[in-house]
Specification:
about 375 residues, mainly alpha, DNA polymerase, domain 1, hpI Integrase, Chain A, 3 domains, three-stranded antiparallel sheet, 6 strands
Length: about 375
């Protein structure tokens, strides 16, 4: 099989030109704008192609037009194949440019990359004075807790350096989670801009027991009241959480398979990340309705949902609960209705201390579904 040609590396943040799979394509090169958005796990959100061309060098010309605001739909059709001399000139220019960029990037510290990431993520400098969003405040707090590596060149950092930051942080478990999110997002930004050789954030973990697992579950009489008001959007979401057991932050990036009736999500620990939990039959209509209406579980901020939740509970005459109490409610219901302890742990994303369970806890979806359906719903 013939090998594809090697082309010069594009400058950081220039965009990308990708050769597409498949044979006999008239225009086998996709031309894509620079990455602009990542999810909480640092995965780039796919970008729509600017256009498709039959030659890499035409793609480079399109990107140059695009960056200078000179591209319009269909303009690539004006291009003819470049001469060999022009191609050699482009290769030479890019080679020198990339070498200079690499040398400058090698000197940038963790703090400098953070400043770049912050401006890119929030479209404003770190020291701006206007009111900040909850995500901004979270990332600023996480950065403050990384002071030990602020002045270390970013490219020289290793997984051990990052792990030490997490291990030595005296803050609560929730603060350690924010540090991990910051690491994931910074490395996603760095990789997209050739500022890191490898994503070391994916090797970092929290080695401390969860100190946030406290709270008070809803009683079954509380749940009866919630079910009577399931048409309220906020109550609808509370019921979904009470019968699925995820932390509220997981619902911001939750995947849902309605055909096979399961959730896939979790962003906290190795045991809990991207776990699969069957959707209890009682909440399938609520899940379907919410996704049809809003497109996601929490399109607004977690803080906005909290405020709505507190107000709704007060109107129903129920005592104040936190979103995390829904997770405790799920655990309580599992215990009350005889869900097997190991299956409860699997669905809650708890780590197993038993080596046998760590290795062999790969329950099939239908086995977990049989367990979760033991939970009865009082309406």
């Amino acid at each position: 099989m013939p090998k594809h040609k090697k082309y010069p590396k594009l400058p950081n943040g220039y965009g990308s030109i990708k050769r597409l799979s498949g044979k006999n394509r008239t225009n086998p090169y996709g031309v894509y704008p620079p990455t602009k958005e990542f999810d909480l796990n640092g995965i780039p959100v796919p970008q729509k192609a600017i256009c498709y061309v039959d030659d890499w060098y035409k793609g480079f010309t399109v990107l140059t037009w695009y960056r200078n605001g000179e591209y319009y739909e269909g303009r690539e059709k004006e291009l003819s194949s470049d001469s060999d001399e022009l191609k050699r000139q482009i290769i030479g220019i890019l080679s020198k440019f990339n070498q200079g960029q690499r040398e400058a990037a090698d000197q940038k510290t963790f703090g400098e990359i953070y400043q770049e990431y912050y401006r890119w993520k929030f479209q404003k400098p770190h020291d701006h004075t206007e009111k900040k969003t909850s995500m901004e405040n979270s990332m600023r707090a996480a950065y403050k807790n990384c002071s030990a590596i602020h002045n270390i060149p970013f490219r020289s950092l290793t997984a051990n350096d990052l792990q030490e930051v997490v291990d030595n942080c005296p803050r609560k478990h929730s603060s350690l989670e924010l540090i991990l999110i910051l690491f994931h997002q910074m490395y996603a930004y760095a990789e997209a801009n050739d500022l890191a050789d490898k994503d070391y954030s994916k090797f970092v973990k929290i080695n401390r027991s969860d100190d946030d697992e406290h709270g008070e579950p809803f009683t079954e009489s509380d749940l009866e009241i919630l079910w009577k008001h399931q048409d309220n959007e906020t109550i609808e979401m509370l019921l979904i959480m009470c019968y699925s057991g995820f932390r509220i932050s997981a619902y911001q990036s939750m995947k849902t398979n309605l055909e096979e009736r399961y959730f896939q999500g979790g962003v906290k620990t190795a045991a809990g990340k991207d776990r699969i939990v069957p959707i209890h039959s009682a909440i399938i209509p609520l899940v379907q309705r919410r996704l049809d209406r809003r497109g996601s579980y929490l399109p607004d901020s977690v803080q906005a949902f909290r405020k709505s939740m507190y107000a709704s509970l007060s109107l129903l005459g129920l005592k104040k609960h936190t979103p995390h109490d829904c997770r405790h409610t799920f655990s309580m219901l599992c215990d009350k209705y005889g869900v097997m302890e190991n299956d409860k742990k699997t669905m809650l994303g708890h780590a197993f201390s038993d080596v046998t369970n760590k290795v062999y806890r790969h329950r099939e979806l239908e086995e977990l579904r049989n367990q979760i359906e033991k939970i009865k719903v009082c309406r």
